[in-house]
Amino acid sequence: MRLLIHICLPYLITGRLHSDAVAHAQTLVHQEAVISAEWRLVQSTRSGPEPRRHGVYAEQMEHKEKRKKDKDASKGDRVTLKKEIGLLSACAIIIGNIIGSGIFISPKGVLEHAGSVGLSLIVWVLGGGICALGSLCYAELGVTIPKSGGDYSYVTEIFGGLVGFLLLWSAVLIMYPTTLAVIALTFSNYVLQPAFQNCLPPFIATRLLATICILFLTWVNCSSVRWATRIQDVFTVGKLLALALIIVVGLVQICRGYYDALRPSVAFEFSGDPSVGEIALAFLQASFAYSGWNFLNYVTEEVVEPRKNLPRAIYVSIPLVTLVYTMTNIAYFSSMTPQELLASNAVAVTFGEKLLGMFSWVMPISVALSTFGGINGYLFTSSRLCFSGAREGHLPYLLAMIHLKNCTPIPALLVCCTATILILCIGETHNLINYVSFINYLSYGVTIAGLLYLRKTRPNLHRPIKVSVLVPIAYLIFWAVLLCFSLYSEPVVCGLGMVIMLTGVPVYFLGVHWKNKPKWIYTAVEKVTYMGQKICYVVFPQEDPSETEPLTSSKGD
Which sequence ranges are marked TM in the entry (predicted)? Predict the structure, then answer.
């Protein structure tokens, strides 16, 4: 039959009989005969007849197995964000993002606003406790709404597009580029400090080195998710070793009797009259050092088994960081007076020069490596925020695309890199920290308030983790007190932060809410998107709804 088809089909189309068609058809039939003979030979050598399935159930099972094989085969070929973050890498992301430059520059600001050694240590401990309360709330949100994007995704889901866009706007415009710039400047200052021991490093040199560092790590994150997570793992271990060195040397000093600044009678001697506003600013400085505790929620879709590994990573990382931070500050005060710490531009370097002697060069290198890992972690997570915002339609769709082969969000990474480089030359470090910390705390409070609102409006929503209602309430009370006194003490800084956030309102209504734009705007956007796709070699990721829908299913909703 197949021979007749191959011979006659050309005749029916062209009206002529080709000898080539006859020869080709004969060859096909011969090949089929050989394959059939080989199959009969294999069947005859088997020990017994192959069991056969009968009936409708057998057909359903065969169809199910076929679909499973097709799904498994296509899963690895899909262009999508890959689940390559296990428990160890998840802990490294949290610890690596928290321990960046903060512990090396914030002790000066915390002590300055707290006014005494004892109160500054209390601020560090309480800051870790508040961070733990917030992380418990984020653990519940992360497994209830398993989307990448963190605060932005949760607020958008709970309160709608406008509130989510305002958080996204302030984060992309000021919060994360500023944090990256501060960490990069700290990196360059510590690298250059040994070469300029008696003066500050040149302005151009610090900015140039910081820019080179950001460009290099952007290239790494564009090239491979696995490379980025491996760098995060290695440098997280490195920064913990650097802090362990400080803690061990400090404990040795305490054992030798050098703890005058830590005696209760001395530790609570205030340099001036303490005020609630100053204490609130001390908490803001400490909160900068603890910022990053929620960053694993930005990459939820890339975490292996997020319902298990997300809360586990939080439970391991937050207490560890709080312990390390408190012990590090105790170590600082074992070798430096409060006046020496306030006068130091690089606290860890001054610590090393006083206690390590000829090995003092170890400290600036260790701190530089620590901040290098922090830059990598912030780039990795903040780019996912841009990616999530574009996927929701709040940013240009080009930012929601990933590389065809590497499966990395290259356009979003380039936007984060460019914004950071632009802001590198703006502002003084400690003012930037106050600025960013206020916006950070504002976004945290709105998100955790959303947790309570979601419990009231959707009580039957499936929640694999459900914390006590006292946890978000306690966090929100502290949050409200801190923000009020921050507004009272620094009205200009906090007011400018609010103004920047509110500038997103007209942008939202013009760029997102307004659907019937002139045709030439859509044409221009399409051309830019197409050009960006060709330059970056990116496409929209292929989503698998089965990976997220079961997690957000309701019971009785």
Answer: 85-105, 117-138, 159-188, 208-228, 240-259, 279-300, 312-335, 355-381, 410-429, 435-455, 467-489, 495-514
CB distance 295 to 100 below 8 Å: no
Query: Residue type at 536?
Result: C
Look at 102 and 303; give whichever has higher pLDDT: 303
**What percent of the chain stands above pLDDT 90?**
12
Amino acid (one-letter) located at 65: E
> Can you read off the two tokens belonging to residue 526?
């399409």
Which sign, positive or negative, has the C-alpha torsion 130, 133, 136, 140? negative
Could you tell me the sign of the dihedral formed by the alpha carbons of 267, 271, 272, 277, in that order? Answer: negative
pLDDT at residue 453, as a whole number: 93
Does the predicted TM-score (pTM) go above 0.85? no
Other Cβ atoms less than 10 A from the Cβ of 299: the count is 29
- Distance in angstroms (rounded) separating the CA atoms of residues 384 and 373: 17
Contacts of 136 (CB under 8 A, 6+ apart): 314, 467, 471
Instruction: Tell me the C-alpha distance between 553 and 557, whole Å.
Output: 9
Say if residue 109's pLDDT is above 60: yes
pLDDT tens string 403-452: 888 888 899 999 999 988 888 877 555 566 666 667 777 888 899 999 99
The DSSP call for residue 171 is: I
How many Cα atoms within 13 Å fall on the side-chain side of residue 92?
Answer: 23
* Structure tokens belonging to residue 424: 């590198």
Q: Which of 137, 98, 117, 93 has its CA nearest to residue 288?
A: 98
What is residue 195's DSSP assignment?
G
pLDDT of residue 62: 53
For 376-408, what is the HEC assignment? HHHHHHHHHHHHHHHHCCCCCHHHHCEECCCCC
Residue (of 442, 440, 434) closest to 489 by Cα position: 434
Q: Report pLDDT digits (tens) over 504-527.
A: 899 999 888 888 888 898 899 899
CA gyration radius, the chain = 30
- Cβ(442)–Cβ(435) below 8 Å: no
**CA 347, CA 335: separation in Å to the nearest integer?**
11
Query: By three-state DSSP, how is residue 277 classified?
Result: helix
What pLDDT does residue 58 have?
46
Q: Check residue 539 and report its DSSP letter.
A: E
Residue 548: helix, strand or coil by DSSP?
coil
Give, rounded to a whole angstrom, the gap between the first and last alpha carbons of the chain.
59
pLDDT in tens, 38-72: 444 334 433 444 444 444 444 445 555 555 554 44
Handedness of CA 143, 149, 153, 154 (dihedral sign): positive
How far is CA 170 from each of CA 22, 386, 498, rounded to the nearest angstrom?
72, 12, 9
Could you give the angle at which helices 276-290 and 102-114 cross, rounded to 10 degrees? 170
